[in-house]
Design brief:
The protein is built from 5 helices and 7 strands; from the N terminus they run βαβββαβαβαβα. It has about 160 residues and is α+β, with helices and mostly antiparallel strands.
């Protein structure tokens, strides 16, 4: 059993440590944007955030779970919590092997780089260039949770 709550300043060290351990992007880790998962004893077991880039695009990011809790719906629960009330469109970047994980949440892969916000296009270009050296078949996927027709309307 675990619970999800808004992060507190005291969670900052655990958040940064888990992001480093899981080798996720360490940029833009501002604890007030995070939710954290903790076990029944209050021990930190995972985190995630929605961060806003300089160009105003918003990204589901830093979804990470400690090893002993992986495969137990912690990440899915964190994502549901973050998506609850989040404005759209909402973007994310992930390894291509994770595309099927994010699709049930409504995320769709953006295959045309020209359709990506500039922030994501630049990052993808850089990662693609670095991947050339590793010769991996995996690639950095950029996905979007599109706005609903209601959210697209200027007037409510």
């Amino acid at each position: 059993m675990f619970t999800i709550r808004s992060a507190q300043a005291s969670d900052e060290k655990a958040i940064k440590g888990l992001i480093r351990e899981t080798r996720l992007n360490p940029l833009g880790l501002k604890w007030p944007h995070f939710v954290v998962a903790e076990d029944e004893q209050g021990v930190f077991i995972g985190c995630g955030q929605i961060k806003t880039h300089k160009d105003g695009t918003r990204e589901l990011a830093s979804i990470a779970v400690v090893k002993g809790w992986r495969g137990r719906d912690v990440a899915s629960t964190i994502i549901h919590q973050l998506l609850n009330g989040a404005s759209r469109p909402l973007y994310l970047m992930c390894g291509s092997r994770l595309i099927p994980f994010y699709q049930p949440f409504g995320f769709e892969e953006i295959s045309d780089a020209a359709a990506m916000p500039a922030t994501f296009r630049r990052y993808r270009r850089f990662v693609d260039w670095m991947s050339w050296f590793t010769r991996s078949s995996e690639y950095l996927a950029v996905m979007v949770l599109p706005a609903t027709p209601y959210e697209d309307r200027a007037e409510y």
